[in-house]
Fold this protein.
Amino acid sequence: MNMSGFRVTAGLAAFAAGLVIGQAALAADAARGKIFFTQKYGCYQCHGTEGQGSAITGPKLAPDPLPYEALSAFIRTSSRNMPPFREAILPNADLEDIYAYLKSIPPAKDWKTIPLLAND
């Protein structure tokens, strides 16, 4: 199997596994996820403390993150600037907590509701 076929197969396997554990992600702990995101795994170093991302360091993850299955598959098999985080490094339970944290981040306020910016 060539490398491209392997990536597709690995991605599909990760997606299928995500469907099985997707419901577990709903029961994850956002408070623990915040600690994992901002301290233990250092995700904030590239993605910002609230997943806001940066054009230079890493893409926006929150609010409104990718579906769990897609995010998990990317994290496990990334071959881009971000190294892959295999389950031995980032256990599924911790990833589910991180995802719960990302889901808990509210959207930014509309700038028109901020008096200093609204010029009213």
Observations:
- DSSP finds six helices and no strands in the chain.
- Helices lie at 3-26, 30-40, 44-47, 68-77, 92-104, 115-118.
